[in-house]
């Protein structure tokens, strides 16, 4: 009976202790990276000053050793940027997990399958349309209305792109990995070209074009964060409540259906939610690649495929990774953060492809 | 091996197929009739072996039975059309072991078996004591207790099959549809699985329909045998009546002596 007693205690997913440890650990990593990122920058506000300023804001008796402009730099420039990085990273990490489970494809992420590109087209349309079509400027005049338009169009664009990619990739039966990746690549490239065209013809500086295509966290302020945060966090929370379904989808369509999953509405709901999260992130920061691919993989290797932990930890891990990547981007002189994530992510992607090819030839 | 106990004739069927036909479609046009006028009912406590050549419609029959494919004719589950039930309600009553299941990387044996509890899940993030009991019973019944703690993708084919059987048992359905449950299993585990299914039908009134390929093994469990050929039921009755070498020879297109040898050398019914 010893074996069966041991079995019983294993049922019910990760124990509370393990869940606390894993999620707590990821939270600590995220908080540490936020603190470091807030304290580092090109302007003279160092880590000790940053901690002092935050301490003073919290009502602690800290002697003022910093210049009078320092709090402004910290709270108006750096902190919103770091928070935007955390938010966008969390959204991309979580959406990556969901797309990988949905498509049962380890290469899927919001960037690779075109969702991010589609969302960026929508967001850029919202920005440039008032310039190209002056009549629209009236409606987009107020700040909150402008932001709302960007979110809505980003969502529509993301949904359109993912629907297009899935429809083409599924032609002639089940979607296989190569078809999906190639379709995602083609659609993304096409959409990116249209985005560049729109931005250039709206008379924007080339830097802003590059920022959109490669992703940049520089443009985010508190109003934008206030719109994106509920979408990303709320969407991720709703996805987390679907952990059981996400686990079952890994068993394949037939087995999942046999275990009570109503595939068509369930898939539709998951695509909608993951696209919502992605598009909110993209509307804030443009298309940032590879976060949604790398983070879920590393987290899966570390803690296993159970979505109860995989999803929240990938959100936290994505947030930490993007905060640190953006810090690196700032420190090397303001390259778009997407350049840094691509430098990390593209080799990782190639390694995954190599490994997948190896697994296929040597079963 | 089994003590014969026919299900009581007045217990209502859990699954009832009447004149079921199904054809896959290609580009919107009917391509090939896979099932033709199949009538079959299964009552609680019955063990049914489904035999037939490759492509005779066995897997399609399962898919139609659980409402994954919709054909002509009527499919009733617990007296109501299968289309009236939600997927979850169907999954609470019927568990299906697919022929070619996908086993995702990284899950441990007990995690996979616990997925069988999904249709009964009530708690948001954990499992109930009931779930834990069901998983434990299933692991014991499928002889998979010794595999607990191991990663499913590192198991051998036969070990994996035992875990998948445990997963369908953890679902605690009233009807089990097993598509080639003995594949990859060694002889001892094939015999043990059939003995377990026979015990579960007797003690818990579980109904089982299992696709089997080995007439000798089938005869050992002494089930009701349904013989499917080109989408039609060509025989349905006790093993001793259906597994006749002459009939097997005709359906499987083999010689009578070969059929005789394959059905365990028995001369009954010839």
Question: If strands are numbered along the chain, what order do they take across the biggest sheet of chain B?
Answer: 6-7-8-3-9-10
Number of helices of chain A: 16
- The number of distinct β-strands of chain B equals 10
- Structural class from helices and strands of chain A? mainly alpha
Description:
The complex is a heterodimer of chains A (363) and B (270). Chain A is mainly alpha-helical and 363 residues long. Chain A has 16 helices and no strands. Chain A has helices at 2-10, 16-39, 47-57, 70-102, 115-132, 134-139, 143-170, 177-201, 206-214, 222-240, 243-249, 253-258, 263-285, 291-303, 307-331, 337-361. Chain B is of the alpha/beta class and 270 residues long. In chain B, strand 7 (175-178), helix 6 (187-204) and strand 8 (207-211) form a beta-alpha-beta unit. In chain B, helix 3 (109-115) runs parallel beside helix 5 and helix 4 (129-141) packs across helix 5 (157-170). The longest helix of chain B has 18 residues, at 187-204. Chains A and B meet through helix 1, helix 11 and helix 12 of A and helix 2, strand 6, helix 3 and helix 4 of B.
From the structure above, extract its key features.
heterodimer, A: 363 residues, mainly alpha, 16 helices, globular, disordered N terminus, B: 270 residues, alpha/beta, six-stranded mixed beta sheet, four-stranded antiparallel beta sheet, 10 helices, 34% helix
List the helices and strands and how they pair.
The complex is a heterodimer of chains A (363) and B (270).
Chain A: H1 2-10, H2 16-39, H3 47-57, H4 70-102, H5 115-132, H6 134-139, H7 143-170, H8 177-201, H9 206-214, H10 222-240, H11 243-249, H12 253-258, H13 263-285, H14 291-303, H15 307-331, H16 337-361
Helix pairs in contact in A: 2-3, 2-4, 2-15, 4-10, 4-13, 4-14, 4-15, 5-7, 5-8, 5-13, 7-8, 7-10, 7-13, 8-9, 10-13, 14-15, 15-16
Chain B: E1 15-26, E2 29-42, E3 47-51, H1 58-65, E4 72-77, E5 80-81, H2 87-93, E6 94-97, H3 109-115, H4 129-141, H5 157-170, E7 175-178, H6 187-204, E8 207-211, H7 215-221, E9 224-229, E10 232-238, H8 239-242, H9 245-252, H10 256-262
Parallel strand pairs in B: 3-8, 3-9, 6-7, 7-8
Antiparallel strand pairs in B: 1-2, 1-4, 4-5, 9-10
Helix pairs in contact in B: 3-5, 4-5, 9-10
